[in-house]
Amino acid sequence: MHAWPASEVPALPGKGRDLQIHDTSTKGTITLAPGPVARIYVCGITPYDATHIGHAATYNAFDLVQRVWLDTKRQVHYVQNVTDVDDPLLERALRDGHDWTELAERETALFREDMTALRMLPPQHYIGAVEAIPGIVPLVERLRDAGAAYELDGDVYFSVEADPHFGEVSNLDAEAMRLLSAERGGDPDRPGKKNPLDPMLWMAARPGEPSWDGGSLGRGRPGWHIECVAIALDHLGMGFDIQGGGSDLAFPHHEMGASHAQALTGEFPMAKAYVHAGMVALNGEKMSKSKGNLVFVSALRRSGVDPAAIRLALLSHHYRDDWEWTDEVLANAEARLERWRAAVSRPDGLPADALVEEVREALSNDLDAPAALAAVDRWVDAQNASDGDDESAPGLVSRTVDALLGVAL
């Protein structure tokens, strides 16, 4: 599966700072100092309704991670999946009378268009669940043969007790895990399971649903968590730098994925940091497909909204915060974009070397994008209030905003 084209990232003078980031598993801020190549895995969409502002906020956060690392002169090995077969996708296709493969392809194509418009840097490997099945099957077989998984009426479940570190990603108690499992695709009440929290690794073929050859597992399709594990291990290996996604993925998805990988390899941890973006609400409610209250990037673009303004609206909130999308948020972003563009359109201006370092400092501090925006605002206000004579300043500000914030002025 192909990703989307990369926008050029301008080179800035000097060198950026190592990233300090909040790690869900330790509940604190850690400093990541990767080697020459930083490794990141971000969970992708289930393509039945893309791309809403909640998606965009999440991928914007991890785009900032890439940009901070690139500014430190590192390479970035970024992997993202597409869950192009799963219950929600099949249910939506059945409801709307569409072929599920056509629905997945259409929504994935739209997602690529939105990511390109928003100047999100693409992953080096963009892998669909279906194309990953040949690599998933042997992992499930290994877990079963090692006693870390078991069969139940033809389905194969992972035993969470096989990983002594289970629970260390989300740090939730058993009751909270059980409630979230029921809400987020698990089946804690299914009779016969060894532990209510045990997640499915391989679903035996159901009538009327797609299935694939699973070797000794029989025909079926993979569970949600093992999909990302297979892709991450294949392209990044264990101990990569960041496992990322929305905060609703901490449990069960990232918790279960970490346990799968750790039981398979005997190594710990799967990722050095588990990083989660906050949720976006609309009219006081979390934006979600089930509520039908989604604001789509493509719809905003079709209405004439500049993608740079959408990106500035996302950047105006700290990535870990839950926040609400409103007309005011967008209007403020559009006004900011207009001010910034006017300021850098002047032939000269106030020196901007200090601004570069302010933006770097803000982003290295747990991706504090609002602080970075405030730094640019201060330069713009000063630029508009005085006559500078540095001919290189407007260009440097434009390159800084582009390279570190992904906004083209």
Please describe the structure with a list of short key phrases separated by commas or semicolons.
409 residues; alpha/beta; Rossmann fold; Four Helix Bundle (Hemerythrin (Met), subunit A); 2 domains; five-stranded parallel beta sheet; 13 helices
Question: Any overview of this molecule?
Answer:
This protein is α/β, with parallel strands linked by helices. The protein folds into two domains: 19-297, HUPs (Rossmann fold, 3-Layer(aba) Sandwich), CATH 3.40.50; 327-405, Anticodon-binding domain of a subclass of class I aminoacyl-tRNA synthetases (Four Helix Bundle (Hemerythrin (Met), subunit A)), CATH 1.20.120.640. The protein is built from 13 helices and 14 strands. The protein has helices at 53-71, 87-96, 100-117, 129-145, 174-183, 224-235, 250-265, 297-302, 307-315, 327-344, 353-364, 369-385, 393-405; strands spanning 19-23, 28-32, 37-42, 75-82, 125-128, 149-152, 155-158, 200-204, 220-222, 240-246, 271-277, 280-282, 285-286, 323-324. It has a five-stranded parallel sheet, sandwiched between helices. Strand 10, helix 7 and strand 11 (271-277) form a beta-alpha-beta unit. Helix 11 packs antiparallel against helix 12 (369-385).
